Inverse folding.
């Protein structure tokens, strides 16, 4: 039950009335302390919801264990015998948990989200890249990918993209650690491009594999 | 605590309506294309319910007598050869499908279908039936089998569906259960159910692939199993690819041989139904032996055909390769490689075909696991999940959406709102805008699939958001929300944000039944549909009353001192009355007492809130004080 209570204390004095027993409940509580009825998910920040500190560096395995533990209590499968209201609340809770976990486990989405909760613009609406270095790199890589006719070449592009991503994630982590949000934002855009590139190499590889058979 | 517990004694047979507690057992049903299986789990021990000969498989074949009564299973299968016009098999292939989705044999459909819009209808014994009604007859037979053997009324079930079933097919399955008088506790994906049964039985941990090739559908799911968590990483499949297609290619091969002998013949639906039985026999025969001889007979002429294992494998290879291609895509979706997979669980009767085993083994670079019964494992998983939902469990099934969901935008392009392989349940919103000045309505077309253009995907539903106030093009902000529940069923809502005009629709699929059709069928299927509704409402009232009572008891236990004696006595009287009313069967009395209790506890609730506030504030004060001391 640790996951249910840890890091959920910051709003301890914010109370609302439990929909079931009408008594006081802390806004961040998942269940009413008095009658144990499941509560609505509220608008907790993803980090708070999954009980981790608000930082870029996250142990994804640990995060996942917390996520499982929370789902064990909140998933609709636990509410099959309950009232319609409780079923609906459990679904809302599980939806919020899935959303939080989807964002935090992914190094790109997590960077974007952390920028947003830090008061910066996220990168999700940036459809154009205006970093000339990144643009040049993107063009060159795409060209070599398009020209690639052997799986070996594509694999090389693919491996390089994966390595670059790993390095980029490290740099993002460093930027956030030094509160260099502008730097983190630039790097996150690069990570976004690398993610897309990796996707393209996979597609290209699939095309080559299909053509070779 | 001083609450008096009142017991009301009933003579046996006197209680007019059964209490919810009496019907605790819920069954697990694998509603298959070729065969169905029903199982039950008690105290964590699952068991397939078998007939007197020990057979667990119930052929998913239904024969209709002239009076409309249905015969399901082995007997119906035998009747197929004698009276093909009154027998239907493989109806699962039609669930949630339109006419254009049905595959032909040399130009002839294996079903006598009725022309029309919406979900396909078949003509059988002179009646026109939907696949939902026919499936309901199969479910009814399974329900009866379980009631006979378990000696109690069974009203709740977990039913499995192919992971790759779309929204229309899932809804159709749920509708069929309702017609059969079964409440669906959960629709569970077949590969996930199989993984649950396998994982719990063998204490399996790690990444597993479940390759499920049934009679009419193919699924591949990658799951991570660890410490009671069954997490689907990615899933893929083809809802129209299965063992039936192997029968089809063999039959097409025989028919082409026959054309060389007799020229082009016209086949009737009945001819095709009987010929398909030969196709299936041939497949089963050469899965065991190297070759076999078969005879086709219609139009008064017979022809004999020989087929070898090698010939069959040449014919079936494209089908098997398609499944392997899908496996490859799923691994890519999950960013995994074949050697990341710890074991391959084979599910579905069609995995008995040697070519399938061989190719799956080659692709995943390991021998698939063979220590399970591929025909029964899905029903066992369903039964385990049924027990988990009713009795409780520490295990957790986390499944995903098999297909992306989106809406049609300008130029017939699909804007995806929920990507495939997203963990369930999920809700996502996307904003759209109007493209004409003064546009007062917006058509919303919901589609399911991976392709970019609308017409290449499956159309799920259309609805219109009306009453948008006149604005310039692009000024309205319409937020469309998709939510998919744990059954994989979609609800779509649309809201215009500047005015708050909103609309919510449970998606009624383009290939589904309308509410009216469903109501008529329910009326026809249940002699006492009204009683049934009454029981449901009563059960709901009891569940709600228990919830309210427990909430009040808990509050009294903790904060009882906030009440003076008179107030407490008043609440206790209502609690006792409510406790008593639950034993009765008048839901109006129960509901009225619930309202009374709510009124009687309002002041109590207010005092509890005040007390909570006070405590919180003093807590904050102490915190501040402590901080001050620290500083």
């Amino acid at each position: 039950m640790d996951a249910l209570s840890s890091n959920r204390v910051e709003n301890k004095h914010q109370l609302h009335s439990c929909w079931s027993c009408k008594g006081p409940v802390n806004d961040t509580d998942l269940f009413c302390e008095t009658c144990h009825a499941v509560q609505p998910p509220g608008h907790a920040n993803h980090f708070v919801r999954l009980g981790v500190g608000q930082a870029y560096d996250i142990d994804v395995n640990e995060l996942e264990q917390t996520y499982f533990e929370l789902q064990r209590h909140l998933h609709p499968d636990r509410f099959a015998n309950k009232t319609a209201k409780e079923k609906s609340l459990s679904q809302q809770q599980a939806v919020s948990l899935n959303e939080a976990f989807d964002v935090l486990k992914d190094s790109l989405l997590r960077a974007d989200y952390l920028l947003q909760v830090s008061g910066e613009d996220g990168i999700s609406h940036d459809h154009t890249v205006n970093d000339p270095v990144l643009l040049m790199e993107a063009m060159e890589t795409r060209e070599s990918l398009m020209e690639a006719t052997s799986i070996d070449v594509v694999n090389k592009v693919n491996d390089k993209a994966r390595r670059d991503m790993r390095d980029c994630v490290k740099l993002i982590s460093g930027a956030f650690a030094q509160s260099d949000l502008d730097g983190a934002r630039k790097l996150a855009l690069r990570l976004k491009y690398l993610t897309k590139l990796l996707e393209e190499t996979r597609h290209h590889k699939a095309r080559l594999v299909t053509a070779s058979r | 605590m001083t609450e008096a517990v009142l017991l009301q004694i009933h003579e046996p047979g006197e209680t007019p309506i059964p209490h919810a507690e009496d019907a605790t057992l819920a069954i697990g049903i694998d509603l298959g294309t070729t065969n169905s299986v029903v199982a039950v789990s008690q105290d964590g021990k699952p068991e397939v319910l078998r007939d007197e000969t020990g057979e667990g498989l119930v052929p998913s074949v239904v024969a209709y007598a002239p009076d409309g009564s249905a015969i399901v299973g082995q007997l119906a299968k035998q009747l197929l050869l004698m009276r093909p016009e009154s027998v239907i098999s493989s109806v699962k292939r039609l669930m949630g499908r339109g006419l254009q989705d049905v595959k032909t044999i040399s130009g002839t459909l294996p079903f006598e279908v009725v022309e029309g819009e919406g979900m396909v209808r078949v003509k059988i014994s002179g009646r026109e039936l939907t696949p939902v009604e026919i499936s309901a007859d199969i479910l009814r037979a399974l329900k009866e089998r379980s009631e006979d053997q378990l000696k109690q009324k069974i009203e709740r079930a977990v039913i499995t569906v192919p992971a790759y079933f779309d929204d229309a097919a899932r809804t159709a399955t749920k509708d069929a259960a309702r017609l059969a008088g079964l409440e669906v506790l959960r629709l569970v994906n077949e590969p996930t159910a199989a993984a649950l049964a396998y994982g719990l039985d063998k204490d399996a941990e790690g990444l597993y692939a479940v390759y499920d090739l049934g009679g009419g559908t193919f699924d591949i799911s990658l799951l991570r199993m660890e410490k009671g968590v069954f997490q689907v990483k990615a899933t893929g499949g083809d809802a129209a690819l299965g063992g039936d297609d192997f029968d089809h290619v063999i039959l097409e091969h025989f028919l082409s041989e026959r054309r060389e002998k007799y020229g082009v013949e016209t086949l009737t639906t009945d001819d095709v139904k009987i010929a398909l039985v030969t196709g299936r026999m041939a497949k089963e025969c050469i899965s065991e032996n190297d070759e076999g001889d078969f005879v086709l007979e219609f139009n008064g002429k017979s022809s004999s055909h020989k087929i070898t294992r090698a010939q069959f494998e040449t014919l079936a290879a494209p089908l098997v390769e398609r499944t392997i291609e899908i496996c490859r895509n799923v691994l890519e979706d999950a960013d995994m490689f074949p050697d990341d997979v710890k074991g391959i669980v084979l599910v579905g009767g069609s995995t008995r075909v040697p070519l399938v085993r061989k190719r799956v083994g080659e692709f995943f670079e390991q021998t698939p696991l063979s220590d399970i019964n591929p025909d029964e494992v899905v029903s066992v998983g369903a039964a385990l999940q049924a027990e988990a939902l009713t009795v409780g469990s520490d295990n957790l099934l986390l499944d995903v959406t098999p297909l992306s969901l989106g809406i049609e935008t300008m130029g017939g392009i699909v804007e995806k709102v929920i990507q495939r392989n997203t963990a369930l349940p999920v809700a996502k919103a996307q904003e759209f805008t109007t493209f004409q000045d003064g546009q007062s309505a917006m058509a919303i077309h919901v589609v399911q699939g991976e392709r970019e253009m609308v017409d290449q995907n499956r159309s799920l539903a259309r609805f219109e958001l009306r009453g948008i106030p006149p604005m310039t093009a692009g000024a309205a902000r319409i937020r469309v929300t998709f939510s998919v529940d744990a059954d994989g069923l979609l609800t779509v809502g649309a809201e215009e944000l500047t005015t708050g005009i909103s609309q919510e629709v449970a998606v009624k699929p383009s290939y589904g039944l309308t509410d009216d059709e469903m109501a008529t069928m329910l009326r026809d299927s249940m002699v006492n549909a009204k009683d049934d509704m009454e029981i449901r409402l009563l059960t709901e009232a009891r569940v709600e009353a228990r919830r309210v009572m427990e909430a009040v008891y808990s509050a009294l236990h903790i904060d009882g001192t906030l009440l003076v004696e008179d107030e407490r006595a008043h609440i206790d009287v209502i609690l006792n009355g409510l406790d008593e009313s639950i034993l009765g069967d008048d839901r109006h009395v129960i509901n009225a007492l619930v309202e009374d209790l709510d009124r009687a506890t309002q002041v109590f609730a207010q005092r509890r809130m005040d007390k909570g506030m006070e405590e919180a504030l003093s807590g904050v004060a102490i915190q501040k004080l402590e901080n001050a001391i620290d500083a």
Q: What stands out?
A: The radius of gyration of chain A is 22 Å. The first strand of chain A starts at residue 15 and ends at 17. Strands of chain A lie at 15-17, 24-26.
